[in-house]
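User: Hi! I'm working on a homework problem where we have to compare a predicted structure to a textbook description. Could you give me the structure for the chain below?
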Amino acid sequence: MEVFLGLITIEDYNSMTSLIEMGATSNDVDAEAFARDLEKVFSSIKASMSKWGYSFGGKFCLR
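Assistant: Happy to help. Predicted structure tokens:
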């Protein structure tokens, strides 16, 4: 889990697709499309946090 959280911090969505191999998804998942979807999700979260005054550098904190 720690590695996964580190990948979020450095925005390495391609490496996050290892979730497919770990069995966190169905077998018929396109890894490139999954990476793009992860990027969209985490970019949206990051934008929302910035809007509400949080930073996204590994730890969430009030500005």
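For your comparison, note the following. The chain has a mean pLDDT of 78. The two ends are 27 Å apart (CA to CA). Good luck with the assignment!
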